[in-house]
Amino acid sequence: MEARSARRLHIPAIKFPSSEVTMLRELFALLTALLIASKILRSYRRNAHLPPGPKGLPLLGNLLDMPKKEVHVTFRDWARIYGKDLMRVQVPGETFYVISNKKVMVDLFEGRSATYSDKPRMTMAESTGFKNVTPLLPYNARLKTSRRFLKQCLSPAAVRSYHPYINNRAALLLEALHTDPDDYVRHYTRMAAHTALKITYGYEGVTEDRHLLEGAIETMEIFAKVVAPGGGWMVDALPILDRLPAWFPFAGFKRYQELAKPVVLETVCRPFEEVKKHLAQGTADGSFCSYLLQTEKIIPEVEDCIRWAASSIFLGQFDTTTATLSWFTHAMLTHPEVQQKAQAELDRVVGPDRLPGVEDRDSLPYVNAILKEIFRWQPILSMLPRTSNQDDEYTGYFIPKGTYMLANIWAVLHDPEVYPNPETFMPERHLESSTPDPLEVAFGFGRRVCPGMLVAQAQAFATMACVLAVFDLKAPKDEFGNEVVPVTKSVDSLINFPVPFKCMFIPRSDAALEIIQRSAEHARFIPDRLERWSD
Ligand code: HEM
Questions:
Q1: Is 234 exposed, middle or buried (0-12, 13-18, 19+ CB in 10 A)?
Q2: Which residue among 311, 319, 450 is best mutated to probe the pocket of ligand 1, counting the most ligand atoms within 8 A of its Cβ?
Q3: pTM for this predicted structure
Q4: What ipTM was assigned to the predicted interfaces of this complex?
Q5: Which CATH class is domain 2-533?
Q6: 73-112 pLDDT tens trace
Q7: Is the CB of 197 within 6 Å of ligand 1?
Q8: What does the DSSP 8-state code read for residue 132?
Q9: Domain spans in the chain, listed from the N-terminal domain onward
Q10: 63 in ligand 1 pocket by Cβ < 6 Å?
Q11: pLDDT score of 9
């Protein structure tokens, strides 16, 4: 830099005769005019080729039209007017390109994945300790390493080896649902948490460590709060605010970060350190962490990557599984005819002497159709955020570098042209081979597709099949003897949960009660080692 300015200082001034000066001036003016004209033309061309969207107000854009809740529904309605492929929505400080068409999601997120695998920055979540969790990582080397690690423990072969463990946890869940039905949501969470912690850390007693379990559940709650779209964190719109001290008036978000961050860090670091301790003592059981710590070349960056990729397993698993099973419970209460059909299939295929398991999935097409319909009817995440990392053009529309893309997967899964009467829960639609598989959409796309999708489906399937095999799910009655059927309504959160409701889990017969007790006892006695890591 210094050398360059020194050289510039020593360039002798060139002297031109006056006519040449005039000519040069004219040439310069002409070039400048051409440059400005080409800029105007380019900007006009770009503007002319921006996707359409609802007309907004100067400065405020579409802010005043944005709903407080269920933004995906409004975006679907707007997309019907302005275009399912790409629609432009503007609010102060951000422009969203909303996609409501599966083909476009596949074209961009899979076909052009090198351009569309980045994530928008979430300052609030980063400063609360989640900077390095996989779902928030930008598309960089760390993300690629994290995903390579996750692939090793969530691959088809690895997940197949977890099936016995998943079946056992389902058996223990049935016992908990029988003895304490009021707390069924908590039982779902605990089952998912046990599975996630076992896969991730695996050491003796990890799933019984109440402190860790509660910490992990709390961490998940914090995560949902700080990444919630429209979570109302001003700091996400104005990252500079993050520099304010916690004592500053109106800096409540800084005080929240100060309280939440230690919980997050302890939950992420403590079990990891425990695995290292067990490895050093030669007592570590097989797990994601112990396997990678032994097989990878461990330098501080790699160790840190394993630590945070591990946390992504439990962050990915708890709430998503709980929400899926809560909607399943809701659907069974509100659709007794579906419940009966599934039970008839289970009685015919599995019979009364054993519980169904993950391995029965192919022979239970109706239960499998229920699983698909749950993921279609109530997708757990309704919109997937990405950003583009270079200028691009799609079907003639200009997509500038850094554009905030939102894939409205809820709209795709509720498209009446693909799924007639989309609001109706109707598993039968998936018995037709022509119905597009919702599982290809509900878990995302391309290089950011959910790495836990096989575990998620295996656990959801085993649980649904086991619950239906032994229980009749019924709505409780009010004081007048009327059934209190739950309303179909979501709570306002990142993960799509139903509004809480009560459910009775009534054993279908004495034989069903006996199998609940026998299976739970059996599950308690067999070692809870994961085969994948035990060889
Ligand atoms: C009920 C189940 C689940 C659903 C519906 C679900 C859905 C999703 C979706 C839609 C994404 C974003 C994909 C994209 O942007 O294209 C995602 C990301 C992710 N999921 Fe899941 N998921 C579930 C369960 C799980 C489980 C069980 C795990 C771990 C074992 C997991 C781990 C992750 C991780 C680590 C990411 C971030 C990936 C990345 O950003 O590269 N998920 N999930």
A1: middle
A2: 450
A3: 0.88
A4: 0.99
A5: mainly alpha
A6: 999 999 999 999 999 999 888 899 999 999 999 999 999 9
A7: no
A8: T
A9: 2-533
A10: no
A11: 27
